[in-house]
Amino acid sequence: MNLQALTEEEKAYYARQITMKGFGEESQTQLKNSKACITGLGGLGSPIATQLAAMGIGYLRIIDHDTVDITNLHRQHLYSIDSVGEPKTDAATERLRKLNPYIKIEPINTEITTENADKLVKDIDIVVDALDAMAPRYAVNKACVDQNIPFIHGGVIREIGTATTIIPHKTPCLECFKGGIDDSKLPSNASQGVHPSIINIIASIQTSETIKILTGKQPLLAGKLLFFDLTDLTMEFIGITKQDNCRICG
């Protein structure tokens, strides 16, 4: 595969990344030639999209079906008060293109379902989960397993966050360790609240795992669930096991 080389302007834009030991122009070129999909542009999706765009993922597909609400703004810093009422995909695209004019943004304003998930992640190198419900997560998880696409899962509520990296056919998929959850029985950020700091921590970890995979390095959360509690700054790594009888990857 012939990779598209960095321009001089791009080398200047990404200079502080390229300078990092073990990164260099080779990794930056790999990012330029990569395609990532972010499912959801809310709490997690806002900082994930900002970081991945600024770090130079060459092609970003961003998916959401919601509009910006004033209650979003304390934690979704991709938007401003002027964005209220706009589709999140429109507001995010405008902001990200101003942030980094050297990448391509593909906005898709739609709800993710079992019927469209396969199409939504097609021809993508990696998918980053920033959804706030399990039903669309299950749909994306299955599509990623079927198409052999790495899936970086994350979730936050109150001051607690979790993250893991799913490598199809190698690690447990989402159904293996979080299967059968009914969204109607789960607490939500609307009822429980959420601290912006835990969102940014988990989003940054998801971004880091994404960059590792796209630059050919080993992710640190493959087969592990990270549990982070902001109330006492504790971090735990919990081993998760692939289920032989999993209906998706078993």
> Mind telling me the CATH superfamily name?
NAD(P)-binding Rossmann-like Domain
Distance between the termini: 32 Å
Q: Mean of the pLDDT scores? A: 96
Number of helices: 10
| Number of DSSP strand runs | 8
Q: Proportion of β residues?
A: 15-25%
Largest sheet: 8 strands, mixed
Give the low-confidence spans: none
Strand order of the main beta sheet, please?
3-2-1-4-5-6-7-8
Under CATH, the topology is which?
Answer: Rossmann fold
SSE ordering: HHHEHEHEHEHEEHHHEE
Secondary-structure arrangement, i.e. CATH architecture: 3-Layer(aba) Sandwich
Short key terms for the protein model shown above:
250 residues, alpha/beta, Rossmann fold, eight-stranded mixed sheet, 10 helices, 19% strand, globular
In short:
The chain contains ten helices and eight strands. With 250 residues, it is α/β, with parallel strands linked by helices. The protein has one domain (34-239): Rossmann fold.
Structure explained in plain terms:
By secondary structure, this protein is α/β, with parallel strands linked by helices. The chain has a single domain (34-239), classed as Rossmann fold, CATH 3.40.50. The chain is 36% helix and 19% strand. The chain has ten helices and eight strands. It has helices spanning 8-13, 15-18, 24-32, 45-55, 88-99, 117-121, 134-147, 174-178, 189-192, 196-214; strands at residues 35-39, 59-64, 104-109, 126-129, 151-157, 160-166, 224-229, 234-239. Strands 3-2-1-4-5-6-7-8 form an eight-stranded mixed beta sheet, sandwiched between helices. β5 and β6 (160-166) form a beta hairpin. α4 runs parallel beside α5 (88-99) and α4 packs parallel to α10 (196-214). The longest helix has 19 residues, at 196-214. The two termini are 32 Å apart. The mean pLDDT is 96.
